[in-house]
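Final report, closing paragraph on structural work. Over the funding period we assembled a curated collection of sequence-structure pairs, and we close with a single example.
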Amino acid sequence: MSNSRDLGSYGTSALTDTGVDTDNVPLAQSVLLLADAGTAATLDTGTAAGELPTNADLATGAFTTVGTASTANTGVTTGTIPFAEDVVLVDASGNVDIAGTVTADGLVVSGAGFIAPLISGDSTSETQLRFNANTAARISNQANTALIFETNAAERLRVTANGNFGIGDTAPSSKLTVYDTASDEQIKLGYSSTYEWSLGRVAADGSLVIKGYNGASSTDVAHFNLNGSVGIGSVPPTDTHATWSQLFLGEKGSFISEKNNAGGNFGNYVTDNLYIDTDTGNFANITTDESSAYRQEAGVHHFYSQPSGSAGAATALSEKMRLDSSGNLLVGTTSDFASGTVNGIIAQGTNKPSAAFSNTASGQIVKFYEGSSLVGSIGSSNDGERLYITNDSTGLSFLGDFSRINPCDSAGDARDNAIDLGQSTARFKDLHLSGGVVFGTPSGSASSNTLDDYEEGTFTFGITVGTIGGGSRGKYTKVGNQVTVFCQVDSASEYSSTAMVELTGLPFVPITPNNSGHAGNGAISYPAGMGGDVISVVAATGSSKVFFGLSNGSNLQYNMCTGIWHCRFTISYQTNS
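Its predicted structure, as stored:
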């Protein structure tokens, strides 16, 4: 027989075996014979304790080659028995020893150097390691070293001695590390390959990417850049500034907030087509388009916009509106030009109106209140052709379709003969008219009740013979076609002519009412040096002359006057001028 090591005591409880020494053989109950297929044969039951198995016992198991790979044993043939190297030792509790000492651990494989037990199949089916009928199944590395899992002779998973997991990482420093240099998708979640989520990094810039899959198509749900920028449904610009937290939504939306007051753009921004550039620290366009921003800081709300600009180019935002901390809304301006006198809307236009209001139908457009009480309104009527401004039932309606202003009620409807213009202690100063003032009731005609002219002025007298004195002067008042003249006359150059004294230069040519008599008569006062008994002054019809009447019915002549003669008079007459 060949040499073998001491097997020790491997007998059953019914047999006290003293061991199997070199050149000795084990008892039948002490051995488990192995067939070529690698399955375990049943312990021989036909051999009594202390006896050797017979050829028939061995043949029953259909054993051909028994022994380890290191033993060149040709097998057990008829009439022979197995050597010590040809057996797997099994103790009475079922513990198995391969190349070692049987312990209570169940199966022990031991040896010096690299120990790698092999379970090998025939390449036609799976090779499995199964556990059954237990309270738990455990794979345990009892040493303070890593537990490593390999496929295709390459490491895939490592569990370090302190419990860190590394997938693609041979020295994981966290509880779970996943590395994959060949793919942007490191982790996938889902219930099938059709509907799933993936988590990975972009090899080019290290960004973290979350994708969603719906069938064959995928959607980039979120991007996280290394500088802290995040894109939801979009990829953040590559040159975002790390001083600001920047969140990008969709194609052009973004939310920007400064970190630790470290930059010049303070507050929180909600923008369209904007980000903060890492090169300048200022806003730039995401795409070539217009851009706008809303900013909130320290209780103040700012609204900005800018015309179209190129992608990546710096922007020049212009503030269009501000809601300040006092609740005032500033439109078109960034300062309170009302100097604190307004609580509400402060609007300023730039070569355009500062406000516009509209109603889709006739009626009130703007209403004014004191507290909760309505004090007035501005509205439109007649399908937008007319504007009215009212307080209670007193207002003015502007009729653009008739070029007219009417008194109106609170709805803009005409209010006849009910509204006064001014009062005795609150009068209007000047009324400038190019047309007339119509008096009377609606039954009168506009022509018969119209005052269409009023005029005041001065004029200079002339005289038909001689010269007029320097103190002569005249004033007039014209109301409609009625003229009233106030005059002072001085003359001293002619006392011989028998011609009638006539003054010239009336401001309007007199007419005779109903074509009969003189155009007008007046009263004379303070006559001096005028011979005869001058009792009247008369406006000559059809000319701008005035002559003087005497008590005897004749007219004053130059030769009746003596010295420097003068007088004052008032005369009224009518004119067609």
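The longest strand covers residues 565-575. Residues 1-52, 54-87 have pLDDT under 50 and may be disordered. We thank the funder for supporting this effort.
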